[in-house]
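Workshop exercise sheet. Pairs work together: one partner reads the sequence aloud, the other fills in the structure field after running the prediction. Swap roles for the next sheet.
Pair: D.N. / O.F.
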Amino acid sequence: MSNAFRKHWTLDPTVIFLNHGSYGAVPAVVQQRQEEWRRELEREPVRFMRLHRPRLTQAARDAAAAFVGADPADVALVTNATHGVNAVLRSLTFKAGEELLVTDHEYNACRNTLNFVAERWGASVVVADIPFPLQSSQQVLDAILAKVTSRTTLCLVDHITSPTALRLPIEKLVPALQQRGVRVLVDGAHAPGQIELDLMKLGVDWWTGNLHKWPCAPKGSALLFVHPRHKDTIRPTVISHGANAGTTLDSRFHQEFDWEGTFDPTAWAVVPDALKMVGDLLPGGWEEIRSRNHALALEARTFLAQGLDTEVVCPDDMIGTMASIRLPADLLQRLEARGVSLFGELV
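Structure field:
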């Protein structure tokens, strides 16, 4: 992070922080705003939960939906993308013998959820092996579609892979799978803030993504998109008061997800603040931020690959603002020869 932007965060000045892909980092002004809401919450908890929480949640949902190109009516706030994946998969029913498709690059937590529901219903998990390194996104399409059979009913796939930082061709993959009768759940944990999103245009069945990573909202802020055709089947992981509070499908959908029991809603409350604050850092807003970060990621990838005398693992159009490189087999020996360990200590 350059000095021009570092001042907006409270990060350790002795650390060059690059890893927004794990937990993100919240700007100082957003931390302050969240603390203000926490103090308001503790001044009168009942009043806050009954009066402030609903409108703050609605404002956050509206801002999050606009950020990913979705109708707020189809968006629920959740605590993280893994929560979103669980809400979808554990709401669905399957038949013995059905096949649930996933790639070998899927995030472990979500793969565990898929394994859990497959075992519960007697379905099987089929894994599509994505070549790595690869030369084009077409290889991803070919690898996944080659595994589709007449028994395939659902595909869980990353928008941007967590272990390998690959931007998968979701825009082509979703319609190709749906044309084959396969419903698609996209794990978009890393996508918000990295790439431009238009979920209404994408037409995906379900999509979930984190706001605490690249958008820099507090931990505990994420969203779940549910296509209107599935609104009557998707329920939150925790069933609470909202199950019988609404009189319409849309109101039940939001009331169930908005209130899964008592929790601190201040992370959701400042989502609009985080999206605006980060978006205001550059004149071109989020479009310029994504473009700038994409260029920096490519530049860093080239620098490291050349310095380590190793290859890049995918074409530029499969990179968002994260990039992976193949480490040479003798890296440890090279570092030790220079008196450095991977853990940042002298050896």
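Discussion prompt: The mean pLDDT is 93. What would you look at next?
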